[in-house]
Amino acid sequence: MKKIRLLKCPGYVPATRVDRLTDLPLQFDAMVAQPGDLVLPSPVNAHDHGYGIRTLDFGAVDDALEVWIPGLRLRPRTDPYLEALVAFGRLAKTGVGATMHCHNSLNIDRLVDEASAVMRAAGDVGIRLGLSCPLLDHDAWAYDGGPRRLRPFLSEGDWEALAGTIPNYAPIHAQLDAVETIAAANTNLLVDVQYGPIGPQWCSNALLEAIAEASSRHDRRIHMHLLESRRQRAWLDRRFPEGVVTYLDKIGFLSPRLAVAHGVQLRPDELELLADRGVQVVSNPTANLRLRSGVAPIASMIGRGGPAFAIGLDGTGLDDDQDLWREMRLLYLLHGGRGLTQQFTAQMLFDAAIKVGRQVINASDVQDFTIVDYQALIADALFDDVDEAEVLLTRMSARFAKKLFVAGREVMRDGKLTGIDFDAALSELLAHAKADLPRLERQRPLVSALSAATRTYYATWPGID
């Protein structure tokens, strides 16, 4: 007779088979899970950008990271609440109920209002949220000098158009005050507000030092991109001869309150230092492949006692579908090794997706659950005693997620969200985006010119292709 499978610790021990869910800290009724279902702790999407309108939809085709970034200028002007509502709803429909959201606004005057809208969207969908508030004071167009480095590769008209859009960044104290204002206004117990320096290449030393001090003083977490591409590695090595990770350690930036995303270019000595300081590294395998950054040194991390790692979608996913289950499988296969003995285990993978992911969003003690149609996963199986964690890492995808419970609330049932009308929200968001098409059409030639100029600029760097 089929039973309900309760997989409390994926990768450690097989699921317990029960008739009823009587030992979970939730008020389940008899109809929540049915025979043939599997119940497990929900994984966390530990690094993302909340793209309601995904990048390919507004024409930002995958490319090398720095060449791809100008395409973000084509992001439609939409309502931040709707944008977040669709992004979070898309994720919850897959059975994932927690995400680390790196907000995309660079306008300090709008940040407080936009953050409020994002937090409201998370509450309406019902997910847990780490909210990384963007902080920067260096221009993003080109490392080692900003937009003036692109001038030789642009026509006079394109340069004038670019120069007219270079922002004036708010003073450091104003940026940090905005984060504290957002945190003070947060009434959602499922939301954790964090400092979000976009990356050391886009922050002055003074800003990085101020963030380190503020994080210690307020006991507030930091979430930052770090060493994603070869060009970032080359520039940061020139800027910090002692090494950027060593510099961050000297100013007190490294601590268990810090999570860094990507980390593709991290060296073994840097991994060791991050581990010593309790920093978490969030791996984004699909994004790193799609933006030609490479493969993060996860195998080195697990083989040498490196830093704890989590998993994030970074707004993409292998099929552009925000399916964290597939992302987990990609990571598992990429770092499985070639030997006779498996070094990267299901236990490590699920710890990354659940335990460390919850640490990244500052929600270590929560118990949220996803219910999977496990019978559908093993419909053709001749044996029903194969380790459930291995089955999930081989076959699981969003379409098998039946229900999602966050903080005792049923957020998703049979692919439908219980708190919002996702299809209506998506339709409204697309209408907003299409209303901005005339501006986007005018911007496209400049974006193409910027991407071409960026490619040519970095091609001049010795030893970096």
UniProtKB/TrEMBL annotation:
Keywords: Hydrolase. One of its GO terms (molecular function) is hydrolase activity. Belongs to the metallo-dependent hydrolases superfamily. ATZ/TRZ family. Signal peptide: none annotated. It comes from Rhizobium miluonense. It comes from the Bacteria. Residues 39-336 form the Amidohydrolase-related domain. This is Cytosine/adenosine deaminase-related metal-dependent hydrolase. The keyword Hydrolase applies.
